[in-house]
Amino acid sequence: MAALRVVVLSGSSRTFLNAPKTIRTPTANMSISSMSRSRKVALSTFGVITAGGAGLALMLHQSVKASDLELHPPNYPWSHAGPLSSLDHASIRRGYQVYKQVCSACHSMEYLAFRNLVGVSHTEAEVKAIAEEVEVVDGPDESGEMFTRPGKLSDYFPKPYPNPEAARVANNGALPPDLSYIVNARHGGEDYVFSLLTGYCEPPAGVTVREGLYYNPYFPGQAIGMAPPIYNEVLEYDDGTPATMSQVAKDVCTFLRWAAEPEHDQRKRMGLKLLMGSAILVPLIYYMKRHRWSVLKSRKIAYKPPK
Amino acid sequence: MALAKSVYNLLFRRTSTFAVTIMVGAIFFERVFDQAGDALFEQMNRGKLWKHIQHNYEEKDEE
Hints:
The complex is a heterodimer of chains A (307) and B (63).
Chain A: H1 2-9, H2 13-17, H3 37-65, H4 89-101, H5 124-132, E1 135-138, E2 147-150, H6 164-170, H7 182-185, H8 189-198, E3 214-215, E4 223-224, H9 245-260, H10 264-297
Antiparallel strand pairs in A: 1-2, 3-4
Chain B: H1 2-12, H2 15-44, H3 50-62
Organism (chain B): Xyrichtys novacula
InterPro entries (chain B): QCR9, QCR9_sf
Protein name (chain B): Complex III subunit 9
């Protein structure tokens, strides 16, 4: 700034601004345009070799993955897959019915309480009725005894087994995982769970599966302790939806996605509002930047070499 | 232009009215923006939210 002021004060700025282009300016040899031809060729060769090598390494790395025994699930078009798409709450409701009638025989959901269902898939009166069907151990009372009472909204989902060891004994040594966060806890999320539930098949020739295990190509190791849990008409939906195998699997996956991510809808709602706010603010900020910089972008600086 | 000038003279010229205008404007803007966002989200996800299927289950309880 000081140099500029000196130039302006000296009164010769006009002559420098109008000076012919033949004025010699010292340049540092740092830009590509000022390089010699051979240097340019060498540099571009080096760049091409580096990029090609990186690409080749990436390709080789990809092809190594093909020897993996694991079958990765395809991407299914979930109705909640879009960046602004909410969960299908009718599907969550059906999914809870599937969990209650099918999955809960072996799988716990210990981080979910009955109250979590209120306003998501059931009304408060309905959830109270569901909770009252469950016997909950409470206590101790005034004589120091534990007692059972009907469940309340604040109770957590009942567990099928009192502890993991009992679960292992009852299931041939395999522990049925807790389903509270299962969709977030597995690679592939609901795509994986859906593929696993519907992917049971006969083992290929030459593969023998141990007694008590089942062949499932999507399960790491291919031998899973869970028997095929769902099939066509495994249950009858309250809302009359035909309970095909894929419908049941889709509903329970939607339910499990909600269980793992109860804030899902709120998150996307806030995301939409963020985008709306950005649509107002970003153009304003861009205009302000252009406005502030217009002074700097349109000035011309002349350098007066010392004599 | 005449509108902008009268708005300036009426509201933005004095600091006191300017501050009041900003505060009252913020309240109204926030309400309108929030409700517009919710309406848009519900329009985009029509039939999927609990709000849209709630009536199917509440009527049964009242009967």
